[in-house]
Amino acid sequence: MTMxxxxxxxxxxxxxxxxxxxxxxxxxxxxxxxxxxxxxxxxDITFKYLASAEKVLGGPGFxxxxxxxxxxxxxxxxxxxxxxxxxxxxxxxxxxxDGKITHFKVMVRPLKAINLLHRLMGEQLAKQ
Length: 128
Fold this sequence. Notes:
Distance between the termini: 33 Å
Radius of gyration: 14 Å
Order of helices and strands: HHEEHEEEEH
Largest sheet: 6 strands, mixed
Strand content: 35-45%
Shape: globular
């Protein structure tokens, strides 16, 4: 796998261009949330979660602090602070051979951050 998919992910996080996000997702993409117990399957729902997460988490304090790659994906560690709560997490992303996201898993700590994100994501998803 080339890292063009990862480059496109970083580009989306900088541009906030939802059309670019849509193009980056494989039609059979799967999203796994730290607060939803079942995987969310398909481009439509994966898009909805990732676009909402970018609005909730992707503000000025968001930054990736670590990156680990393998032949078909990457683990990206991130930090942010929202409402006085320090958030630490990882995005685990798997790409197809053509650079499309096929699987996206988010893990977050500490519990206080998960609870905050659960509330904020619920509010954001309700707006859509």
